[in-house]
Amino acid sequence: DTAVSQTPKYLVTQMGNDKSIKCEQNLGHDTMYWYKQDSKKFLKIMFSYNNKELIINETVPNRFSPKSPDKAHLNLHINSLELGDSAVYFCATGYTNEKLFFGSGTQLSVL
Amino acid sequence: RKEVEQDPGPFNVPEGATVAFNCTYSNSASQSFFWYRQDCRKEPKLLMSVYSSGNEDGRFTAQLNRASQYISLLIRDSKLSDSATYLCVVDTNTGNQFYFGTGTSLTVIP
Predict the structure, then answer these.
(1) What is the mean predicted confidence (pLDDT) over B90-107?
(2) If you write DSSP's letter for every residue of B7-35 in order, what string do you get?
(3) Cα(A49)–Cα(B97) distance, rounded to whole angstroms?
(4) Pick from A48, A96, A102: which is nearest to B44 by CB?
(5) What angle do CA A90, A93, A96 make, to 5 degrees?
(6) What does the pLDDT look like over A1-34, one tens digit per residue?
(7) Could B102 and A53 be called an inter-chain contact, meaning their C-beta atoms sit closer than 8 Å?
(8) Among A25, A75, B47, B109, which residue has the fewest nearby CB atoms (within 10 Å)?
């Protein structure tokens, strides 16, 4: 069983569309994260979320919204996609302030 | 100043060489430190945690210097399979978040 799974692996879409990326973990971790890795390979935190608290990186546009139906899932919804949103998005999970486990990534290409 | 800074490299070393990477961090209250490895087009994977007293795992040694706010990774007897990007990771001590360095690229040459 994959510990942290995210889907889809590849996502190609047109500008202006709305899309979602799903993440599921079976590790029982209390915190889930979304990271964005741009073309320069820099990993930047977008959100961290546990049952108590959602922390949003202030530089993330409000077109991006995390949605957590339960402790094992943290999905990322993106409205009105722009060319600059093209990147690899990684879901990660962990216990508070402990090491992170990453999903295999979703490569998003906005045309 | 960036929260975590690393020399991006690239480092090109022959097999069998010893190579060291350094990483500096800005938040003196940080408590958790890690080295991750990322292969091309793959997710980052934990290489090792970094403990205050320093720790070793086979050919890999990690050290923490709190006074100077840097961590290091030493790789001895480099293998071709060590070729990857090495990411320094530091907690922000606020809100369950971690900062990643930009990564140091290592290529081990036959």
Answers:
(1) 85
(2) ----EEEETT--EEEEEEES-TT---EEE
(3) 9
(4) A102
(5) 135
(6) 679 999 999 999 999 999 999 999 999 998 999 9
(7) no
(8) B109
